[in-house]
Amino acid sequence: MNRRQFLKSALFTTIGAVVLSACKKVVTETKNLIDKVSTKKYKNLDISVIGFGCMRLPQKDGEPDIEKTQELVDYAMDHGINYYDTAWFYHGGKSELAVGQVMKKHSRNSYYLADKMPLRILKDKSEVIPIFEEQLKKCQVEYFDFYLAHNINKREWETLKKCEVYEQLLQQKKDGKIKYLGFSIHDTPELLEEVVNTYKWDFVQLPINPIDWKVVDAKKQYEIATKAGLPVVVMNPLKGGQLSTLTEKAVEILKNEEPNVSPSSWSLRYAASLPNVFVVLSGMTEMEHVTDNVKTFTDFKPLTEKEQEVLASAIAAYNSSGAISCTYCQYCTGCPIGIDIPKNFLIYNQYKANNRKERFIIAYESIKEENRADKCINCGICKPKCPQKLDIPNLLKDISNLYKELKK
Ligand code: SF4
Ligand code: SF4
Asked: What is the spatial distance between Cα 76 and Cα 287, in angstroms, rounded to a whole number?
């Protein structure tokens, strides 16, 4: 290389380095400018107030759509959402696999992962650890930050004790494979008291939203947890999506107060405003769910007294519509006839929200005949499975009668 070539090459190298460094600076500064959701303290951890629920991931051909899920999760991570909640039952076991696939590009200490022991399928205590180990493998992690006994109710409580679930999970905690051990519950305050007083837990996951606060004792349950010193993770803050659609009248009340925010944001803020709540889970399926949640929880402010009143008026308007308080949790599946209970309830609630008869008829007829409300034989098998304590057979009868009436 002659002197001229040497000087040219040195010049380009220098310019390249300057440009690269300027680009890096721009990227760093741009990242710093990105909105980040607010956090709350759980012990010494900073947890995003809004958590990513992985029970309603985007789907393709009946399975989680990994590419789309990756986009949502990457956006959520970039905007500071650092709590991810999955479970054995979500997406028929595929949610944990999807979480494993999409989270592996993010460093393990940049997010907190919650998973749950599926009490409902346990028959023997020897099954607990193999299931737990399989969950670690599916999620491609060495440990869970938060781990819960899933969905305690009267039956599962007996299973938990019989199968020595707590004792075995406590050992996993001692071994460093669980950082914090808790449980989720859909039952009475009495059972919650018993669970809280029987074992030493680190946190509890409760269904809290502005409808359940009074109707299914959410307030009482929150108070029991708080008195016992258990921080709360909120599940079902939108009551299976009902609080994101509401009725025209209820939406109007909210829009009159604040035209530029979504109905969902009201209920999510409602749950996050409770001082003993450290994270509110939101099932995110579309990018607009993630962006809306980021908007709601960037510089999060609890609901003011006036906002609480506005929300209460909207809920009163919604409740007067006669909608069924189904959360579409699917716990009632397994009907021997094959009735799709949540789907029938969903179209009924949509009808109550918009009062469009034609739409109801089309939606009802789009359900396969064998899955429709009118095929219910009133065997009652589904009733005890419903955490909302809905009188499912009678409600199905109402839906069937409504269809007959509107069809006339
Ligand atoms: S009561 Fe009706 S919906 Fe429930 S399990 Fe029996 S047939 Fe199915
Ligand atoms: S009827 Fe009950 S169990 Fe079934 S989806 Fe609705 S809330 Fe869940």
From this structure: 9
